[in-house]
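User: Quick sanity check before I run a bigger batch. Here is a single chain. Can you write out its predicted 3D structure?
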Amino acid sequence: MDLAVIGVGHVGLVTAACLADLGHRVVGLDDDAAKIETLLAGGVPFHEPDLPQLLEKVTASGALRFSTELADAIADAEVVFVCVGTPPLPGGGPDLRFVERVAVEVASSVDHELVLVEKSTVPANTGQRLTQVIRREQEARGTDLTNVHVASNPEFLREGVAVHDTLNPDRIVYGTSSDFARDALRRVYAPLVERTGAPVVETDVNTAELIKHASNAFLATRISFINAVANVCDLVGADVEVVAQGMGMDARIGPAFLSAGLGYGGSCFPKDVDAFLHLARNVGYDFRLLEEVGRINAGQRDVVLRKLRDELWHLSGKTITILGAAFKPGTDDLRESPGLHLVRTLMDEGATVRVYDPVAIPGVQAQLPDVATFTDPIEAVTGAHAAVVATDWPEIVKLDLAEVVAALDYPILVDGRNCLDAAAAAAAGLRYHGIGRGHLRT
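Assistant: Done. Predicted structure follows.
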């Protein structure tokens, strides 16, 4: 099939590359000329494992090409995937103007029948709004009122394993309002279903939109729940790691997303929880559970600060090293990063802050040019009064803890991801503080 992907950010570029790998002919479109130039030169504008190799393969074969011209991208497209940003507005709802703009531009440019697919995360009823916008635009121009079919096809990829998730999905979800759109999306995903046997959920547009928000909100709820349990564990002297293990053995619960720590970050969970809460309010439902999920998540950063204050008393004048800046390993994404939140708070309290990360340092330097940054973790902790693990990178998990103790001025480490061996940390001479590991006295 001939496909177009509008917006080649994280979701769009991975989607375009994977659709091309399935055998489709794909054009990736973006109005950021610099980004397209990078891609045309063989580069990748962000860090994502396996993506550079996949892009090299599908661009060399001619299955994927890039453009900055909408007319070029959609000239032959049977399906157009909209992967533009939906950043949060001050009130918590998503900013949908970029999605609307794409719909208007496609409606005013297309001269054949196609499916316009929401791939960006949008609230329920967005499809109805887009259909209304498209009809009005076409009415104003006197063009065909039936040639653009709106559909929803939410993505469930995780940064750091996005290529794997896209090519090995747990499920494929799409919502349509016409037989034409349903049949087109069946054909898009037929090679993937044949390859993987992935289950397919075919539904209406509103339901597909809601599946995405409900999924992310539920996963965020699990994370906040185990973090609340961790805070109780600290107070009563229990180990949240063992508590989570015991919980996860229950088939009704399972072990996923029961890792206590600094809380969730990134481009999806914070924004999607707020957007779902905003949607519920707009339709008259008081979804207080989601308010508490967000509050608990924000409070986890304060847990780490309290542990530092307990050890160091005053943070002013102290040197603190943050180990890990990206919101999770496998990506250079700094959006809603718990580590950067700690950096800013520590600086506000007068601390000197250093930051280590194996891939995200250019982004840190762009946002915080006055912060000392390092690509070597031992160099980053040398002479510091304490260190905080903010991202569970393999490079951090595998650190020689005796070397860390020798480098630090004070042997204090707060493990904000519970990723280090607590017994090994104690044996090395560290004053180790985990999250929800109140049974430990090191």
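The longest strand covers residues 2-6.

User: Great, the batch can go ahead then.
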